[in-house]
Here is the input.
Amino acid sequence: MVKLKVKDVIFGYSGTNILENVCFELGASELVSIVGPNGAGKSTLLKCIDRILTPKTGCVSVEEKDLREMGRLEVAKTLSYVPQSTVRVFPSTVFDTVLMGRRPHLSWFSGEKDKEKVWQVLELLGIEALALSSFNELSGGQQQKVLIARALVQETGVMLLDEPTSNLDIWHQLDVMEVVKKLVREKKVTGLMAVHDLNLASKYSDRIIMMKNGKIVAIGSPAQVLTSENIAAVYGVEADVSIQAKIPYVVPLKQLEAF
Ligand code: ADP
Ligand code: MG
Here is the structure.
């Protein structure tokens, strides 16, 4: 079953197009990574899907419902978005930061049911002990989990994540990826995330979308997409790719000249 469908999306910030005819479909309970060099258009694509940006043309639909026909509230009940983590200031506790994610579902006050859902999600992510801590005083890895928790209490079928593991040490990279994988498996969420690290994308993704200059150049299983040829063409880097237990591992060797 097709959960998320992106069809012929074109977008430009000003005159020139940044995204060119982007088309793909994601199934239910699928975890897909978008990889590609800086400036390829990964963040722009995620924002167009979440309608933070409005595509010039093209259609994004979830379960065959066109997002252009939804109000902001309905979009927020359909898709959640975890922005790229920069220094972020939420002058509130972890609990209240996560509760903000319930906003699309709230009437004018938050009920016990909403608070209960926040506790459930904090528990699921193993951060309930941080509930009363100040968000601003957490480490990067903890903040990232709180932002994922905030998206999760939105209870949407599709979750978009923009580089959820950048700025994290390798323990926290695996920790955050395990959490995302768990959500996809247990909550049947469809996950689409921009990822820089090819080996993390390889290890955790059902499929990978590889982008360059606003276009999709390859889409398929990690082994189909992460080939030496594709990496040379898209990144201008010679890389050694070895397959272990069907998962490709990428070792960048050197820059290709005249790329
Ligand atoms: P990625 O996430 O793959 O690194 P982005 O989607 O951030 O790429 O950027 C794609 C292109 O759009 C880049 O050329 C970037 O300079 C440009 N761009 C990104 N944000 C803006 C903006 N707010 N205004 C104008 N151009 C932008
Ligand atoms: Mg980006």
Notes: The pocket of adenosine-5'-diphosphate (ligand 1) is lined by residues 13, 18, 36, 38-44 (CB under 6 Å).
